[in-house]
Amino acid sequence: MDNAPILISQYLASLEMLRQTIVACPEDMWNAPDDRNKFWQTAFHALYFTHEYLWENTENYELRIRN
Fold it and tell me: What is the largest CA-CA distance in the chain?
């Protein structure tokens, strides 16, 4: 049994759920001053570490942010 398509499907589904959550996040909740962990910081960390964990070689990992 080839597990790669299953794992890819699950990663894509979870990233889509994260995308929908980001899009649906109310403006006042995005950077709420009372929150210890801001919504945008949590979303950023989820994306950052997903990107890092999917990198082939973590020793050469480099985050490239495109404008």
Answer: 49
Q: Which residues contact 30 (CB under 8 A, 6 or more apart)?
A: 38, 39, 40
- Domains of the chain by residue range: 4-60
Closest CA to 54 of 18, 21, 10, 22: 10
Distance (Å, whole) CA 66 – CA 25: 23
Question: Tokens at residue 12, please?
Answer: 């894509």
Residue 64 has what pLDDT? Answer: 62
List CB contacts of 25: < 8 A, sequence separation 6 or more. Answer: 39, 43
Supply the pTM of this predicted model. Answer: 0.73
